[in-house]
Please model this.
Amino acid sequence: MFAQMLAWQRSALKVASLAAEAQQVMAYRTLGMAGLWSVDPSENVRMVAEKSPALMQSWWSASRAVMGGAAPERVVLAWAGPLERKARSNRKRLAKRGPKTGFKS
Model:
């Protein structure tokens, strides 16, 4: 019973971590579009192009877990894992860039 509760807590934390990482990435990219954060000129294209592969990897991972008879919380972990890793790598990459300085009027 206790182990099952911990498994659900782990899966909930994984989804919460995914949400937090995604929010930070959206903030950096929005600031970049507004000209307040340094981003590569190709960031908007990258933002769109990365969605399909990340979602397919997530779907495939969750599907394999379901077909393998995994418990529901394991399926959630399998689904969220690839998305969280992608969001985390984006956040780290974008955070290194920093805010733009020296605005010209």
Remarks:
- Helices lie at 2-33, 43-49, 51-67, 72-97.
